[in-house]
Design goal:
Elements: E1 2-6, E2 11-16, E3 19-24, E4 27-32, E5 38-42, E6 45-50, E7 63-64, E8 70-75, E9 78-83, E10 86-91
Parallel strand pairs: 1-10
Antiparallel strand pairs: 1-2, 3-4, 3-6, 5-9, 6-8, 7-8, 9-10
Length: 92
């Protein structure tokens, strides 16, 4: 599935992912391929991005977690939408 992380300043990430863990207002949740369509508000926290091939990821704006193909990005809140195989995260 494809993930786009956008902030008012820039596009932080665009690429193929296997899963994304998000800090929802009611608790952390994970989105996998084939997940039902969803729109959710997010609270401040850490977004975990799971990729199949780490060589395709630019680590300029993402943090390495030390867990192989997992990266993280801190947000101050935002909104996420998943529709089909595309996830769009609008982050503060």
């Amino acid at each position: 599935m494809n993930l786009d992380i956008l902030t008012p300043e820039a596009q932080v990430f665009h690429g193929e992912v296997t899963a994304v863990t998000l800090p929802g207002i009611d608790g952390e949740f994970q989105v996998l391929n084939g997940h039902a369509a969803i729109i959710s508000a997010l609270k401040p926290g850490i977004v975990k991005i799971y990729v199949a091939d780490r060589s395709t990821v630019s680590t300029e704006q993402l943090n390495e977690t030390g867990d192989g193909n997992v990266f993280s990005y801190n947000i101050n809140g935002g909104v996420v939408e998943m529709l089909g195989d595309k996830i769009v995260l609008l982050a503060d």
